[in-house]
Design a protein that fits this description.
Distance between the termini: 27 Å
Radius of gyration: 21 Å
Helix content: 40-55%
CATH superfamily of the largest domain: Glycogen Phosphorylase B
Order of helices and strands: EHEEEHEHEHEHEEHEHEHEHEHEHHH
Largest sheet: 8 strands, mixed
CATH topology of the largest domain: Rossmann fold
CATH class of the largest domain: Alpha Beta
Number of domains: 2
């Protein structure tokens, strides 16, 4: 089977810089089950082609903007269609994110079976921070049309499946998983602390890092010996670091910037808890990475945190730093419960590792391809 995978980027040939690790892990596994070509919608500064484990990557280069509404999108769809024909034929197209990837793939190859994976804010709309496709009528229409025309839709977490169903879309649950190398034994942790907390996410408004910092201050004010490692690219120009200084957390919080997987994993294995303060999440994979190391998550009621609570995570209301601190303290004070939740998280991560995700997607490709072939036979018979 030949499959075209359409992604926004994150598939750099270095395998470490400007990558989305979960996509690379999935591509490696999918490449063992199908002949895969990955089309990136603007990963680099110019059109290019390279190899990654499991697939060839074809990068369309940067989007050519236009003052004429819809012209840039039409050009991008035309270019993708040309490349799909040049590298095809394909049995199916799989797009990560309903827009721009899904919408562009639909316009480029309307007759190919399209699988769309909801992977971000396609169904979200948080007005005060300008996050989500629901806030932009043009993007909202693209998402609606793409999901209506897709042969199959997947979502990374049960809350996202439920939101899709609320909008009349029957999405299948397929979490993105961790490669086998991500399953590390938990580090030895001294009883009673000091406790190591970890937050791995880019610093942006949807992650709501100020709520996280206020929660850590509450823990310290209670006398709990905690430190927080923050790993992620700063997109807010130092505002989060300034807030940490204002709260008096300079000695307790370490900002590492974006870390490659090899440097992040020791922090995961050494953590007592993974903390998440996001206002919205499709998954996220960082929670799965922590789970693979036997580390439970305490966070806001989004994505994997909400669906796993209270077995492998503890979920609190969005924006509630007091509840976040209280939930974290409850596990830090109870090593036995923390360990049991970590073991449950690890078992869940293994059930949804990258190998399993690839098997699920491969099965979906087979279904939509067979359905297309069946429809062709019916038309021929008629």
């Amino acid at each position: 089977m030949r499959v075209a995978l359409v992604v926004p980027g994150g598939v750099d040939s270095s395998l470490t810089e400007r990558v989305i690790p979960a996509l690379l892990w999935l591509i490696t596994e999918l490449g063992r089950r199908a002949e895969l070509v990955v089309f990136a919608l603007g990963h680099g500064p110019a059109p290019s082609t390279w190899e990654v484990p499991g697939a060839r990557v074809v990068d369309l280069g940067p989007l050519r903007l236009s003052r004429v509404p819809g012209l840039a999108f039409a050009r991008r769809a035309r270019d993708l269609g040309t490349l799909l024909r040049a590298h095809g034929p394909f049995d199916a197209v799989h797009a990560f994110w309903a827009t721009p990837c899904g919408a562009t793939a639909l316009a480029a190859a309307p007759r190919l079976p399209l699988v769309v994976s909801l992977a971000g804010g396609e169904l979200a709309g948080i007005a005060d921070i300008g996050y989500g496709c629901d806030l932009v009528p043009r993007e909202r229409r693209k998402v609606r049309l793409t999901l209506a025309r897709a042969a199959a839709v997947t979502a990374a977490s049960r809350p996202l499946v439920a939101e899709a169903l609320r909008r009349g879309v029957d999405a299948r649950l397929v979490p993105l998983g961790v490669e086998d190398a991500g399953f590390l034994p938990p580090a030895e942790r001294p009883a009673g602390g000091p406790f190591r907390l970890l937050h791995a996410a880019d610093l942006n408004r949807v992650k709501d890092t100020p709520t996280l910092l206020r929660a850590v201050k509450r823990l310290l004010d209670r006398g709990l010996p905690v430190t927080l490692d923050v790993a992620g690219e700063d997109t807010l120009g130092g505002a989060v670091q300034a807030e940490a200084a204002r709260l008096g957390l300079v000695e307790s919080v370490a900002f590492h910037g974006r870390l490659p997987t090899a440097r992040l994993r020791p922090l995961l294995a050494a953590a007592d808890l993974f903390l998440l303060s996001s206002r919205h999440e499709a998954g996220p994979v960082a929670v799965v990475e922590a789970a693979a190391c036997g580390v439970p998550t305490v966070g806001t009621a989004v994505g994997h945190v909400a669906e796993g609570s209270p077995v492998r995570s503890l979920a609190v209301p969005v924006g509630d730093d007091a509840a976040l601190a209280e939930a974290a303290a409850s596990l830090l004070f109870d090593a036995g419960r923390r360990r049991a939740m970590g073991e449950a998280a690890r078992a869940w991560a293994r059930e949804n590792r990258a190998t399993v995700a690839a098997e699920r997607f491969a099965a979906i490709y087979g279904e939509v391809s067979d359905a297309r072939a069946g429809a062709r036979r019916k038309r021929a018979a008629a």
